[in-house]
Amino acid sequence: MTNTRRLTESAIFIAIALVLDLVSRIIPNMPQGGSITLASMVPLLIISYRHGWKWGMFSAVIYGILKVMLSNNFAWLPAGNFLYFAGVALLDYIVAFGVLGLADLFRKPFKNKYAGYAVSCVLVMFLRFACHFVSGIVIWTVLFPPELLQYPWIFSLIYNGSYMLPNAIISVVVLVILARYVKFERTELA
Q1: CATH classification for the domain delimited by 3-179, as one of 3.40.50.300, 1.20.1440.230, 3.40.50.2000, 1.10.1760.20
Q2: What is the pLDDT of residues 119-146, one digit of tens each?
Q3: Cystine design at 96: which of 74, 103, 131, 162 (Cβ 3.0–4.6 Å)?
Q4: Domain locations along the chain
């Protein structure tokens, strides 16, 4: 496989992920972001399975950057507070989506390909949740009055878990069903 083909495949899968995310906007978003999507993370996982974790992370970070650029969730930020914007962009977008690229790394120990896909999907979705969870405690609690968030870790757990758990379940189901019909295995560059 040539570099041109790898770039083209990745661009197509990133575009599919963005379109799935846009189509999912018919489902109401959470007030400060986060939403249940129509398996929009699956194309990013497929990139990792096909081209390895390094390329998968690179592609997922590109997706995260594009999500920041296309997002309208930053209207709530106080004027002139670049640190909060940078923290949210980094933790909730770039790192949170970047960890999805590790899927191929977590899939490798499994002989059964379906188990490998399912477990790797759950693990990277958990890592993504962890990024949002930390962001909720470190960044979001600063933006709300203390009386609203007496226990920030509980708020972050419930808030982020309410959309990440359904996303993980949907992604695992779609990924395993797709794996029955589509070859995800890593391809070597020629």
Answers
A1: 1.10.1760.20
A2: 999 999 999 999 999 988 888 777 666 6
A3: 131
A4: 3-179
Amino acid at 87: G
Tokens of 116: 């490998």
CA atoms within 13 Å, Cβ hemisphere of 1: 14
3-state secondary structure of 18: helix
Alpha helices in the chain (DSSP H): 3-23, 42-51, 53-70, 82-88, 96-98, 103-107, 113-135, 141-143, 152-179
Categorize the per-residue pLDDT at 83 as very low, low, confident or very high, splitting at 50, 70 and 90: confident
Task: Return the higher-pLDDT residue of 184 and 82.
Answer: 184
Task: Name residue, tokens 């993504």.
Answer: 128
* Residues 80, 188: Cα–Cα separation, whole Å: 47
Query: Which amino acid, one-letter code, is at 148?
Result: L
Which residues, including other chains, have CB under 8 Å from residue 8's CB and lie 6 or more apart?
A: none
Is the Cβ–Cβ distance between 41 and 125 less than 8 Å? yes
Please identify which residue in the block is written with the tokens 């490998």.
116
List the structure tokens of 149: 């968030």
CB burial readout 52-84, b (16+ within 10 A) else e: bbebbbbbbbbbbebbbeeeebeeeeeeeeeeb
Question: To which residue do tokens 């758990």 refer?
Answer: 165
Is this model's pTM higher than 0.90 or not?
no
